[in-house]
Structures are given as C-alpha cells and as structure tokens.
Amino acid sequence: MSKFTVRPVIVPTPMPTQDPFLFAVYHKDHYPAGDANMQAPKRGNGADFDVTAKYRMYHGDRIPGFPQHPHRGFETITCTMDGLTDHTDSLGSAGRYGNGDLQWMTAGKGIVHGEMMPLIKQTPDGNLLRAFQLWINLPSKSKMAEPTQLMHWSENVTRFSTEDSKVDATVWAGSLYGHKALPPTPDSWASNEANDVNIWFLHMKKGAQIVLPKSAVGSNRSLYVVEGSAVTLNKSTSVPVHSVVEVSNPSFEDIVIVNTGSKDADILVLQGKPIGEPVVKHGPFVMNTSNEIMQAFVDYRTTQFGGWPWPEDAMVFPREKGRFLSVKGRPDEFPPSRSGKDKL
Fold this sequence. Notes:
Elements: E1 3-8, E2 21-31, E3 65-71, E4 74-82, E5 84-89, E6 94-98, E7 102-106, E8 111-116, E9 127-137, E10 148-152, E11 158-161, E12 167-173, E13 175-176, E14 179-180, E15 198-204, E16 209-212, E17 220-227, E18 230-233, E19 237-240, E20 243-248, E21 255-258, E22 265-272, E23 280-282, E24 285-287, H1 290-303, E25 324-326
Antiparallel strand pairs: 1-20, 2-9, 3-8, 4-7, 4-9, 5-6, 5-8, 6-25, 7-10, 11-12, 12-15, 13-14, 15-22, 16-21, 17-20, 17-22, 18-19, 18-21, 23-24
C-alpha cells in the first residue's frame, strides 16, 4: 500500500522536492497595471519575497523579476499559466514567453540568465502572474553539458480533459493516459523515458475525480496542492490546500484523487526515478562534490560564463513585442498564433 506524507508549504517559498528534482516554487502574484515603462508602483528592496503581500518584486527594482544570475549543473523548467516573462542570457539568447508556454533550459557547464516580469497590461485588472519554477538535476556525466534551451509554446503543449470535463490536465513532461509531452532538452535526465520523469498539472472542478496510474518501480512522486481548499487521496487521506504529499512506493497502486473541497483545485505532480548521486548545492550551483562547487565559483569569476552581452542587468523588451525565442545559430521562433506578431 502507498503511504502519504503530508506537509504544509508556504507560497511562494521553495517547496520540498525528491530526487531527481531539486527545487519547486509556485509563483502567484497579483501585479497592478504597469506604468508607461511597465513598472510597478512600488520599488523592490532587492529581496522581496513577502508572503503576506499581493505581489512581490523578488530581486527586481521597479520591474519584478530576477536580474542576471549564474547557474551550473542542473536544468530549469519554467511552467507558466498566466503572465509574461522576458528572458536574456550570456549566450545572447532572448525571449518573451508565458500564458501557458514552457521554457526548458539546460544550465550545464554554466550560463548567466535573467528573468524579468514586465507589467505589460495597463488595464484595471492588472497583471496576474502564475507559474512554477522547477529545477531538475543533471547526472554527473551531463553536468558540464553545453548550455541550451527550448520553448514549448502554449499552443503546442499537451493538454486533455477527462470524459466528464471535470479535470483539465497539462502534460509538461512524460505522459498521462497516452497523452505524451513534447520532448525535453537532449541532455536532460527526462530525455530517457526509462527515467520515468513526469510533470503534470491538474485543474479539478469541485467534486472531480482522477486516477493517477502507478509509477515505474523505483520512482519518486510528489503532489503539490497549490489552489483550492482540500482534496482526498484513496478515500482516506485529506490534503488541505498549500500542502505537499510525498508518496511512498508509488509503483504499488494507482492513486484516486477527489476534489472534496469547496473550490476548484490545482495540483502539480512531480515524478521520476532518482539519479542517486551525491548532491552538493551552493546558491546557483549544483554539483556532486564541494571541490566542484569551488571550481564553479572560480570559473564564474574568471569567465562570467561567457559574459553579459546586454546593456542592462534586468533586461525587458518593448511592451508591443509579442512572444518569441531568439537563440544564436537558430532561426527566431514564434508561437503558432503569430508570424512576427502576437497578441498580448
């Protein structure tokens, strides 16, 4: 029998994860309308993570976000639901994505990137931002892989609804009931199907039910209830909103999830076989040994991982610019809904 360990989480602080995942945060910010420069009415303090506020500036000044910072040894997966993000990096790549898009970035041997959230809308309803920021580890053989990224536009992301239309499922990685996600980056732990990496997002109406199939033998599975009021697992375990559930032995049986609460529920599911290697983390670097972490700092001080080719540490693009991805050596990419232009 599977056992469920339920723990509270605080949005938007890091939530507990299991190998191969390293980090998971649910961002939900009700930003106001932007001014003429896409700025918020308040100034950030450099580290604004106030969980009691309607919105946070994070490391941004007047535009919320995360100005340039380095990574090495893992991958970032940004799964968006609402709002837009501007990306720039030390390879000269750039993009604007959101409203259902997914960005998958391999930091590998080292990259510097920035993620800013310009307040594009000037209407009274403001700028809602909702997204998951995930880190998934790389095995030692891939930690010094060449940095790269890909974009899965919302129009192409795998989604389906249950027959009764009470559950809407998004498959960001892996597969669920024959609905297969788009492929990850080539050096990712998720690129080998034998590693059973799955990332699912479930929106469940009140009273809705879905059965999660058992995992592969040896996999880890975590469920994050980030919206709603409560769900019940296998008719026995009640899980309140803002909880993480670690499932022991998820390969033993299916899991029946019922939304028994008074509101629609949103659940993130992270699953995968563990890499099973030592993990040494220090800030933005994740390696296997302390010596490798020290070398990462030396390399960053020496090379800046290619340097920062942009005029600002916190780059944003003009308000009228739509969603796009520009990667050096590849043709610019746009979502299917546009050819050079995109609706905001």
